[in-house]
Write the structure tokens for this entry.
Amino acid sequence: MTDAPVSQIRNFSIIAHIDHGKSTLADRLLQTTGTVADREMKAQFLDNMDLERERGITIKLQAARMNYTGVDGQKYVLNLIDTPGHVDFSYEVSRSLAACEGALLVVDASQGVEAQTLANVYLAIEHDLEIIPVLNKIDLPGAEPERVRQEIEEVVGLDCSNAILASAKEGIGVPEILEAIVHLVPPPKDTVDQPLRALIFDSYYDPYRGVIVYFRVMDGVVRQGDRIRLMASGKEFVIDELGVLSPAQVQVDNLHAGEVGYLAAAIKSVEDARVGDTITQAKAQASTALPGYVEAKSMVFCGLFPVDADQFPDLRDALEKLKLSDAALNYEPETSSAMGFGFRCGFLGLLHMEVVQERLEREYNLNLIVTAPSVVYQVTLLNGEVVEIDNPSTLPEPQQRQKIEEPYVQVDMITPEAYVGALMELGQGRRGVFKDMRYLTPGRTTLIYELPLAEVVTDFFDQMKSRSRGYASMEYHLIGYRENSLVKLDILINADPVDSLATIVHRDKAYYTGRALVSKLKELIPRHQFKIPIQAAIGSKVIASESIPALRKDVLAKCYGGDISRKRKLLEKQKAGKKRMKSVGSVDVPQEAFMAVLRLKEE
Amino acid sequence: MPAPSRQDLTLSGIPRAAYIHIPFCRRRCYYCDFPIAVVGDKLWGENSGTITQYIDALCREIAITPSGGADLGTVFFGGGTPSLLAVNQLEQILDALERRFHLQAGAEISMEIDPGTFSLTQLQGYQAAGVNRVSLGAQAFQPELLAACGRSHSVEEIYTAVATIQSARFTNFNLDLISGLPTQTLEQWQASLSAAVALAPTHLSIYDLTIEPVTAFGRRYQPGIAPLPTDDITATMYRLASEILRGAGYEHYEISNYARPGYQCRHNRVYWQNQPYYGFGMGATSYTQQQRFTRPHKRQEYFEWVEALERGESVLNTPQTARVDMLLETLMVGLRLAEGLSLKALASQFGEAVVQPILDCLAPHQAQGWVELSPPGSAEGRVRLSDPEGFLFSNVILVDLWTALENYQTGLAVTG
């Protein structure tokens, strides 16, 4: 790797909606600049987590350094810093953008601007990035570059007269994109002489080398062997390994202002080197850290319990290991009368929760029961003390509390006009407050609602997708806490309250939710040898009740020579089903029941 | 009847029983998911090329199946509708069995027959060929119920069939009845039971209807939901059958079977005692050398399989039943019998250590009257399910037993 003068460096990221072709374009840039040989090219080089590839989304960001000789004959170093494409990770996106001077705004020429793209473009504008619009997939029959160009101008307010028409798949427009990066994106400021400040925009845990930190040097120089200090965590480490990503890791002696690279320094946990933290020299410290560092705050909580109680130690070990590579994951032990020992876990959002759950099940082979997600309520007690409650079963009794406040988010949905009615109905049904509706371009509308987060973390996204036949997109961000008339809805199975089934709901919806929940549980819980009452109650008042009739028979009528193997399988299945259940008093409750609140039919 | 206690002890060993599958039927009943071939109402016996071709393959299979060396004590012709065979076709099969395995003197030779498919001459012919037990598929005594389940015969034909059986002087005959049919009421069920008892069969098989997924019923109905009777009603039907038939002098000797003393079906007891048996014909299962093997369910595939067998290709390629599985199967089938299982026999076959977990697991069921131990408190006596409550919940008890024994180390078995 040659030492690149600051003036020849261009740092940029790509902003795009899922499926609008970000990964394909990134691949194409790597290929065109010769960074990755054609034969080494595997589809979508940047997304290297299995889960990401399966879902076609980027969760963990990556970076790549490319050498490019411009049409002007000059040699440039281009650093592509990838951004995660999901709302749960908007903090990470903002840190990646802070490490860049420019961004490619990639929009599918047959689709248009989506909510998430819009949110990220505004983030980029806030960071003063040079934005280069790219209309992708122009080779597709449905492409309408003119309409989309107009839409970007009207919606985002960007001048699109020089938007690049491209097809990353076919390689159309790629040389123009590279030239635009070189000429439009400004070079970093030359602050090589100042004390070291480097911005961490990603990190991951490597079991052999410790945490690998990805960073952009903002000021000064960093060298192999330097003793560094992380300004937020206050920890110091000696750099064992310093390098660039091309996109494979290649070691270098030093990196200076404007450059992007990675380091390893025997850091034991990503918590010690969080995204957004500033790296400086231990000896010649910078006076101030880079702006924008925020502690991760969990928005969504759920209980994770092993189906088989013997797996509790395995679950604890797995969470410890995951935590090493995921600083945003929080957990603490939880004991439930129904589920036994487990953990209460906090996540950035629903996708983050799903990702962690899947990794626990896939990578650590755990069989888990997950309780319905909850948000953090702020409860003011009679003495004026405010407590945060993330587990409905621990909500203080009504006589002890003054008020309950719940988190609200602003949800922006972008949808074809035809689905506006259906989405407004959804917003209304979820206690939403309608704020605004804007026509983006003929036929496309943005709908803005303020909603309790609790209503969004259930199946809001799925409902939005199904009501708009997949066409609508959404983005949300926290706007504060509001007081509401909230109550704890208890579920009693065979007269025992089940802590893991308790939920906090709005008083006006309690009756409906209670009824729906007991009838869902009636479906999910198998018959036992006795009649099982299932009740929903607020305090001591039962508001809904059903009962599961007693089992009258459970017998195989016929069993002759040819039946034995088949009947055996039936019984094995019955046995396996029973093992997957949790005992609540004398009632066996299947796993699905604990997520039942998410599967209630819409009114 | 052989004394059951001695028979309990041998689980592996040499087969002395043979099941012969005769897949032909006039049409398929709505509840049936057996491997059958529909031949309609005219071309039966030797007039059917299909049947002739099948008998040929069947006899070839018998002829090349290695004999364990013991004579056959029981033969069972099941179906399908074996009474669609001409007498000489049945003789052909029995000859093949005799040549290959030899039949014991006094062997039980059973045959399933359907109303409307046989004449007196024909029945006498089967009898002369050696058949000494017949099983008549009556199913119900109400025309609307017979129609509802797609049976090919009338109520009238049931009476004619029984008269024919009696004229042929069969002393050992069974009637099949089904409870829980669509729209069936308790009154109809009681009437069917009384009608059956009045015909004085020596044996009755009473089946609670099972809705199999790939049947006409499976497509149309959901268990416990109208027009099918509720579980409450079918459980009452089960109790009613037990009460009425035991009152009429029948022993309720297996979950779904009743017999006059001395007339239990010896062939079916082989299954319930988890002993080995041969199986011949399409879809038939055999249990020999601890391997359960089911033959192809389609005719053409069965023919090809027989040809492969004749070319000497290894075709019984199923895994041997593991010892722990043998234990679970022994419990599953053994507890179907009213006499239950001998703990002593289980201990000698699977190890002394097997007894305690079984007793521990059964204790709560014993407390609620579903399980009986005789003599009470004995670790060497017999465990059995009570009639009718224990029988009705047998799956619950089995699932508990299997869970308790799934990690049981049969390797510790002390052979006694």
